[in-house]
Amino acid sequence: MKYQRIEDLRIDSDLTQKQISEVLHISQRSYSHYETGTRGIPVDILIKLADYYDTTIDYLVGRTDRKTPVK
């Protein structure tokens, strides 16, 4: 499964895969695998991405189209 939303959020933020991988404390190669769907994204990485982009895990994985979390 390709995780298009994490790629879109990264691009919309004018960030490179390398920059996001540094935020996540992982290699750029690992992050690339997450975007392309060749490797599943661990829950702890999903949490970090959701926090970083101020969105929900459900949005990241395509379970909802609501980008902004309910607070």
Structure characterization notes:
The chain is mostly helical and 71 residues long. The chain contains 5 helices and no strands. The chain starts with a helix and ends in an 11-residue tail after the last helix. The model has no long low-confidence stretch (mean pLDDT 93).
Entry keywords:
71 residues, mainly alpha
What is the end-to-end distance? 29 Å
Assign a percent range to the helix content: 55-70%
Overall pLDDT score: 93
Tell me the number of helical segments per DSSP (H or I, 4 or more residues long).
5
Radius of gyration (CA) equals 11 Å
Strand runs, count: 0
Blueprint of the fold:
Blueprint: H1 4-12, H2 17-24, H3 28-36, H4 43-53, H5 57-60
In short:
The chain has 71 residues and is mainly alpha-helical. It is 58% helix and 0% strand.
